[in-house]
Amino acid sequence: MPDTHWERMEYLKSLGFKVNPSNRLCKNIGEVEGYHREWEEKRESLPYDADGIVAKVNSIEMQDRLGFVAHEPRWAVAYKFRAIQATTILKDIGINVGRTGSLNPYAILEPVFVGGVTIKQAALHNEDDIRRKDIRIGDKVIVQRAGEVIPEVVGPVVSKRTGNEMMFSMPSRCPACGAEVIKTEAMHRCTNAACPAQALEKLKHFVSRGAMDIDGVGERLCAALFEGGLVHDAGDLYHLTREQMLERLERMADKSVSNVLASIEKSKQRPLARVIFALGMLHVGGETADLLASRFSSLDSLANASQEELLSIPSIGPKIAESIAAFFRQEGNQNIIRKLKKAGVRLSEAESPKRGDTPLAGQEFVLTGRLESLTRQDAEARVKQLGGVAGSSVTRKTTYVVAGADPGSKLDRARTLGITVLSEDEFLKLMGKETQA
Ligand SMILES: [Zn+2]
């Protein structure tokens, strides 16, 4: 192999490989600068988008000595071109509702030719950004395009104002569904879990692990149910029928329909905390859901909680409290909850022990292996509900080790220490007895 980059390129070319015809061997940094300037002017003549050039050290021996910083070679440096700018009229500001409910403003422009393409729309980041740049509807604006990134509005040409320009403010209602919008940090969001723009994402979250954990209902089935019009929101899941699914989901076999319906049925018994998390209220993650479930014994009492009550819970601030209230104000969300209720989804901690009624108090359970009829999280939740402790390692203080299928070394340790080992059935019986008592 030749020992310079340039000669290697020439060699590859002689073998029939395609080598960029615009490559140039520059003798010094001045020539590199000239090359950069030249292509900054000529870039629109290229049959592809280019946002800069790359200068490489020619000597391979020198390249080796220069080496890398992480993955970045010290012997190859990109020099970007200036972004290409143009001015045009901002005709209006449109709003896009993202899949997570965020309201994203974008510029609707008088079409303008920038860097080889005609653009009609450009990014505007959020309301604060529009305010900061003082961009008004009707303004003459500078738009720019850098490489392949989405064109953006840089700012207004204030000297061209006629006085007819209009200030912009974000709508207080979601353009996709009309529901109430709340602002958190710089972002405006729709508060409706049934909003058509975000319904599919909400549904995927609802069935996911850590939420309702509905086995067999993955992202693809969610999309098929949604697109087939069988499910508009999480509430509809519980009203699916076998006939509907066989008829409308062509590729689904009888057996898998049965499995899906069975896991949907099973999910009706998930603890309240999971339901709260699954509903996908803004700012309410798993931990907050746990906290809310332990404070309010049902979804109804959470819905009826006053701001004062919510704020009295440690670690719940005004942002979360407001988001919870906004969630329950939405008719769309109420409708989902009605569907869940009607289907018999558990929306309260019915089995929650009264204060002092903690039959497993002082007992520690350690789970090992796979349980067949419930998830490990659910098993641990039931232990905690009854006042017990779910431990992670077997010690002399462990009361019971619950061994499922393929138990690990915890089982050996339990035997060594002489700790009572329960099978899954024995564990369920114990839980059942205590729950009834
Ligand atoms: Zn909406």
What would you note in describing this structure?
This protein has 437 residues and is α+β, with helices and mostly antiparallel strands. It folds into four domains: 5-80, Dna Ligase, domain 1, CATH 3.30.1490.70; 84-160, OB fold (Dihydrolipoamide Acetyltransferase, E2P) (Beta Barrel); 192-350, 5' to 3' exonuclease, C-terminal subdomain (DNA polymerase, domain 1, Orthogonal Bundle), CATH 1.10.150.20; 364-436, 3-Layer(aba) Sandwich (Rossmann fold). The protein is 37% helix and 19% strand. It has 18 helices and 15 strands. It has a five-stranded antiparallel sheet with strand order 7-6-5-8-9, with no helix packed on it. Helix 10 (272-278) crosses helix 11. The relative contact order is 0.06. It binds zinc ion. Zinc ion is lined by residues 97, 174, 176-177, 179, 190, 192, 195, 197.
Task: Give a nutshell description of this structure.
The chain has helices spanning about 5-15, 30-40, 60-65, 125-130, 200-205, 220-225, 235, 240-250, 255-265, 270-280, 285-295, 300-305, 305-310, 320-330, 330-345, 375-385, 410-415, 425-435, and strands at about 50-55, 70, 70-75, 75-80, 85-95, 105-115, 115-125, 140-145, 150-155, 180-185, 185-190, 365-370, 390, 400-405, 420.
Name the descriptors.
alpha+beta, binds zinc ion, 15 strands, Dna Ligase, domain 1, 437 residues, DNA polymerase, domain 1, five-stranded antiparallel β-sheet, 18 helices, OB fold (Dihydrolipoamide Acetyltransferase, E2P)
